[in-house]
Amino acid sequence: MLKKAIPLVLLSSFFLTACSAAEKAKNETKDKNNKIEISQPTTPPNSNLTLVDKSITYSPYLNLGNLIFFPDKENNNKLSTTEKSTSNSYVLNDNIKDTFNYPVESLITIDNSIYFSNTSDNNSLYKLDYQRNEFTKVNNNSVYNLTSQSKELYYINRTDNNKLYHYNLANSTSYSLSDDSCGKFIINGNSILYQNLSDGAKLYSISIDGNNRKKLTDNSVDSFTVYSGQILFINSDENNSLYKLDVKSERTNKIASINGTELKNSNNKLYFINIASGNNLCSLSVDLNKNEAKASQITTDSINQYYLNDNEIFLDKTLDVNKTYVIKQN
């Protein structure tokens, strides 16, 4: 009788242990699932980022054929068109061809349609069919710094804590790429480099589908760009000096003390605003092997901002805040 009882006790013990283990495993799975829902995927430190030569950046100026679409600062930033200039000059009212009753913050073109953020409707996303003169509201997101790649839209959504958003034109859906508050960002190949305002404006990268989120610098960055297979950035923690990041070795090195802001790249030409010389626009020559840089002044006037668009530079001069000045790139 005792021999029969022992297996029963062991069986009961095994059953209780198995149930306890199963319940524990179930709870662990539940906890893991909860963590997955609230956490963000981060790429391991040894996972390299692949960079391409050309990056896509935000600009409120858009070339389409022989026309430039832009927010007319002299007319409440209403969407307007003008013909391309053949020389350095201001955009004059006499040269404006079309004006639409839609003030804009940013705009892009896909398949000859213009997508823009309508500032009179809380920066909602709109579409203009220019040939038919038809306007359509696309969504209610508060769109800021609108850009596009491969017929997909990317922007900062102000109504969702300045998160970086993706909008799919094919199925009319939008979603955030991460939980981070985003500052400046550029699209480079299959990745997006962005200023993470949730982490002290440090530089991060993420895939265009929202995967492979990765921290790139321990320094706060003012601005950044891709140049010759490396990332150049202005280090806000060191008097806005110029640094480089080798994505293969993941090492950062100081190149020069330039005290600059708004570092940008167009057609492999570097530009920045030189704070030390009174906010002039300068071009920048960089030798990555020698860690040397040389600045050349382009404007004598102080500027607040500039935008690179094909072979033109659009300036917001400090003394002419309601006008746009255009410089032809060499």
TrEMBL record:
The protein's UniProt keywords, in alphabetical order, are: Signal
SUPFAM superfamilies membership? YWTD domain (SSF63825)
Q: Where is the Prolow-density lipoprotein receptor-related protein 1-like beta-propeller domain?
A: 108-328
Would you indicate the residue range of the signal peptide? Answer: 1-21
Superkingdom, natural source:
Bacteria
Q: Which InterPro entries match?
A: LRP1-like_beta_prop
Name by which UniProt lists this protein: DUF5050 domain-containing protein
Species? Clostridium septicum
